[in-house]
Amino acid sequence: MTKQQAAVDGTLLFLLGTIAFLGFDDTYAGWTYLIAGVAGLLLGILIAFVGRGQPVVVLAVGLLAAFFVLGGAVALHGIGDLSFLPVPDTVGTLADNSVHGWKRLLTTLPPVDGGALLTIPYILGLLAGCLGFAMALRMKAALPPVLVAFALLAGVILLGVQDPSKTALLGALFGALAITWLCIRGMRARTLASTGGRRLSRTAIGAALCLGAAGLAFLGGPLLPGLAPERTVLRGEIEPPFNVGQYPSPLAGFRVYTKGYQTPEDDRRLYEKDLFTVSGLPEGTRVRVAAMDSYDGTVWRAANDSGVTEGPEDTFRKVSSTLRNPLADGKQVKGTITIGEDFGGVWVPLPTALTHISFDGPDADSFRYNLATSTGVLPSSLKPGDSYSFTASVDDAKVGEKSEPWSGGSPIGDEAAQFQALAAEYAGGGDSPMTNALAVAEKLKSEGTYTDGEPPNQQYPAGHSLRRLADFTAKGGQLAGNDEQYAALMAILANQVGVPARVVLGAVVGSDGVIQGKDMHAWVELRMSDGSWATLDWSEFMNTEKPPQQNAPQPEELVTGKVVPPPAPVRPPATSGDPLDESVNQKANSRPDGFTLPGWLVAVLKYVGVPILLVAAVCGAIIGAKLWRRHRRRTRGTPVARLSGGWRETLDNARDYGVGVPVGATRREQASVLSAAPGLDAAPGLALLTDTTMFGEEHPADAEVEAFWEQVGSLRTSLSDSRTRWQRIRAAINPLSLVPARVWRKR
Prior knowledge:
Distance between the termini: 34 Å
Largest sheet: 5 strands, mixed
Organism: Nocardioides luteus
Strand content: 5-15%
GO molecular function: peptidase activity
Oligomer: single chain
Pfam families: TgpA_N (PF11992), Transglut_core (PF01841)
Keywords: Hydrolase, Membrane, Protease, Transmembrane, Transmembrane helix
Strand order of the largest sheet: 1-6-10-11-8
Structural class: alpha+beta
Protein name: Cysteine protease
């Protein structure tokens, strides 16, 4: 292959790879992904060009070296002060993301900021550039290198997002260039009798036909029958490795914020304690701690997939600083929340429809967000003093009688079917599901009383299980409870009358922005016909000013026809919103369980062991490549080829020790240069034997070849014995002889 042909192949591969990487436009934020991918592509092409004619293992070593030595500068720039250098932290990050980065990319909601995940396009670029150009240089067949470019495009699509609308033009251009490259390589493989001018004419005609076909495909392709509106991607096939159900429901711990509650240990009351401070948000903005969209008969809890929304929006996913939120169609506001001394746990207070978030203090890498419920979770837990800034849409739609509810499924199943009769009674037979839901709310507000269970109302416990709500609504008694019972029951009854509902725990921002325990409330959200959720404020179904009667009659019966779970205890279950329980859990989790490695040993293994293993792997690869090359030269090919290989082995062995010879000289001239070096006195005799045996009247026998290789081994041993141990080690791991020889100066 001529240099011009190699340049054409390299250019077309580079263009195809660049077009393929543009498919990551919806997956990554900004253009850093393209820089990483294109840099990897260029480095891969360069490695294949430098290693042309060398064993495949040489290319593998080159790829490994490029990945770890230059990976920090290409893919990790901006992460740390020394991230552009191959220091232990950089090498460890590259190694970790080369294995686990694929999963992180697929489980993070796009657009991804990049950061360490830029390792993915860098790896793809290195592999595609090196493999594709190596095939173009070593194979006459037209198809294999083009298939590598197609494989890169397929990989980008599988790792990308489902919306293919923005990539139609890129796909058409990619196809046109790929067909053009196939035509160019196909013409090289044939011997044409035509003149150069006619060959140029055919090339131009072929390129024009390719562009025309691509244009027709771009315009007419979307009109063809049987085309799916979305493409198949890995992101839609995997399950996120996160289960929000492992955290207790924050609604079950609502009583910790009430006036009569105090921690048993230190008489601490959160009712008038500062939980967190909100700045930047308008007064009256709702800040939600969590939205709970699943009821299992015991508690309302946040579900990882409640089934009310298709796709990844209804799951808790890793997110970057910027979110592509389909619910962000209201007024955009910017704000900051600072966590106080008396708030903690995993639930992150946020307004609705988050579009940007930046943490100052907490471990942002563990943050998960549910687009469908506007709920955030920080598994590493919020700590006092943590703060985070955000941008969000705060459109707070209200429920009206003329609102049309969602006609699809309900967030809850048959667990609360026992309240169907009660829902019909409270609704009063309205003319629409929404009218019935509002009638239920009015009934609860007009007949209900409010109590947190403080003296003298200790008989009204916390909890919102089926049994607790059955007692709450028992005939002959009185409705007595707080936000926990009212919001839980309101959501259940709304679902029974045909309006999908969920419970939200949070607060409304006041004039000073300080949220205390007394500001925490639970409200209900009802799903509208367009899929959005409208707020039904707690004041619509609960009267906080009406206490229960002290001498009220005892309930006559329970409104239930089935066995229900036992009542919850007065003390609410532990929640991540309870600062006391959170501290207890953290202390319990901090206790060592079984044998653990000392911290200093872990640090040594991380910062010393990993680089040593990496260096050992590279050195082992170089030594293995030389052993494999020597074995191939000695055992493969004709006797004459094996003789020639023995002499090349002698020259390469000398080059590893720093003894270079002119490439264009004869064997005897090369031998005279070698003989001046210690340990190579026998080189002239070996060169003479090589020429005599190769150019003899008869072909050398296998026995003569074996005897010749024994002398090659003796000369190699003599050269090794004349050097120090350090020189022998350095020669063994010297990759110089694996690179094609040009002109080497004598040292």
